[in-house]
Amino acid sequence: MTKKIIVIGSGFGGIAAALRAKSKGYDVTLVEKHADLGGRARVFKRNKFIYDGGPTVITAPYLIYELFDLFDKDYKKYIEIKPLPIWYRFVFEDNTYFDYSDNEERMQKQIEQINKEDYVGYKKLLKFTEKIFEKGFTELSQVPFNNPLFMLKQLPSLLKLKSYKSLFSLVSSFIKDEKLRRVFSMHPLLVGGNPFTTTSIYGLILYLEKKWGIHYSMGGTGKIIEALEKLMNEVNIKIIKNNEVIKILNEGKNIKGVKLKNNQVIKTQNIICNADPPFVYEKLFEKKETNIFFNLKRNRMDYSMGLFVMYFGTKKKYESIQHHTIKFGKKYKEHLEDIFENKKLNQDISYYLHRPSATDSSMCPDNHDCFYVLVPVPNNSSSINWSTEGEKMRDLIVNKMEKDLMPELRKNIVEDFYLTPDYFEKELNTKYGSGFSIQPKFSQSAYFRYHNQSEIYKNLYFVGAGTHPGAGVPGVLSSAKVLDKIL
User: Is 289 exposed, middle or buried (0-12, 13-18, 19+ CB in 10 A)?
Assistant: First the structure.
C-alpha cells in the first residue's frame, strides 16, 4: 500500500520536499493557505508591474535542476535561468562603489584601488572559505543532524575552521580595509543573521557564489515556482490551495492527520512542514507533547531580523542602477546592533535594491522600471507599531534612495506598496514576523537548530529556513535533500 504524506506550505522547501517524496513513491498532497504557491517566493502583480515577493538571488541552480531530473524532465523546457555579469554593486556612504562579480581581473583592480595589500588577503580568504564550503556545504548540508554523537564528531573539524568566530571577525583577520570587510562579510544578512554574531561557517556562501555564480530567472523567481507547480501537476501531486492547515491531529507522539480551515480532515501518518517550526509546535497541536530539553532549546532561540520591503514602479528608467545593489549606511555595526539587540528603528539605514528590469523588460510596462527595496528592521519582539511606523519608513527610504541613487524618484513613482514584519507574522506565520526564522548562530546551527525529523513527534519532518541547514534558496532546497536520507 502506498504511503501517504502531507506537505504543509509551498515555499521552495515544501515544493522540493513534495517532489522528492513523490519520486520515492509516496502519495503526496501539498496544502497551501494562500491562493498561490511560493511562500516567501510569492509574486505580486499590480498595474502591469511584476514583483517577486521574496528571494531574488539564485545561486547553486543545480539544486533546482535536480527536481526536474528526478522525473527525467528537461528543465530548459520549463525555466530560463541566466547568470548575471555583476552580482552586487555595493555603494558606500561616500558614494564610491564596488562591483562584485566573477571577473577576477576587475575584482583585483577594485580591491587594490581601495587597499593594495588586501588583494592578497582576499585570495587567502577565498581559499579558507573553500575549506568551509567543502565541509559545511558539500559534506554536511544534505545530511540530518538528529544525533548528538554525529554533531560531536564534527566539532574538531568545525573548530579547525574557526566556526567559533563571527564571520565579520574571520573576514577581518584577512582583510584590513573597513569597506572591504563590509563587502565580504555581508552574506549572513541574506539568511537573517548579523555578520558580527553569525558563525563564520556561513562564509561558505562567499565560495558558493564563486563556484556557481549569481543567476536570475527570466520572468522572475516566480517563474521557477510556476514551473515547479506545473511539474507537480504532471507527476500527480495533489495541490490544495487557499485552505490552511489549522491543526495537526495526533495521539501522543503519533501523527494521525491534519484538519483544514474548511473542517476537512485528511488522515496520514507522515507530515512534512514547510511552515516555521515554532509556529507548528506552538499553534498546530491541540494535544501537545514535549520534554524539558526541547523546551529549553526552544526558549533560548534568537530570531532573525524583520524585513521592511517596499515594491515600486517608476515612469523613468534608472539605467545606472544594477540588478542587485546594496547601499551601506554610515554606521554599520551600530545599525545592526539596533536591529538585533536594541530592537529599535534607526534613521541611518542600509538597504538592498532589486531592479529586475535591468535584466528583464517583461517585469514592467514599456519605458518603465520595476524595483523592490528591502531594509532590515527589528522583528516584532520589538513591539514596533507598523501601522504608524510603516509610512514613516517608506518616506525615509524614498528620501534616502532619491538622495543616494535615484534623482527625482518621488515624482517618478507611479505604483508602490510595502510589507512589514506584520505580514511575515500574520500571512507567513513566522514567529515575531522574522524574515528568516531563527538566526544562523553557531549555537543555533546543525544539531542545535530545529531538527529535520521532529525531536518530539514520530513521522513529523521539517524543511525550510528554520531547520537544517538554514535559510536562503540553496539552504531550503538542501533541507529537502536531507529528507532523502530520512524518509
Answer: middle
User: Can you tell me which residue has the cell 532549546?
Assistant: 297
Query: Are the beta carbons of 432 and 306 closer than 8 angstroms?
Result: yes
Joined grid coordinates for residue 404: 543616494
**Domains of the chain: which residue ranges?**
4-38+63-81+221-301+442-484, 107-211
- Contact by Cβ (8 Å): 335, 349: yes
Whether the CB-CB separation of 210 and 201 falls below 8 Å is answered with no
Report pLDDT digits (tens) over 16-51.
999 999 999 999 999 999 999 999 999 999 999 999
Read off the pLDDT of residues 205-253 as tens digits, 9 standing for 90 and up: 999 999 999 999 999 999 999 999 999 999 999 999 999 999 999 999 9
Indicate yes or no: pTM above 0.90.
Answer: yes
407 residue type, one letter: P
218 CB-near residues (< 8 Å, 6+ apart): 79, 80, 81, 82, 359, 360, 362
| Nearest Cα to Cα of residue 467 among 479, 482, 455 | 479
CATH architecture of 4-38+63-81+221-301+442-484: 3-Layer(bba) Sandwich (3.50)
For residue 4 the three cell numbers come to 501517504
CB 327, CB 376: distance < 8 Å = no
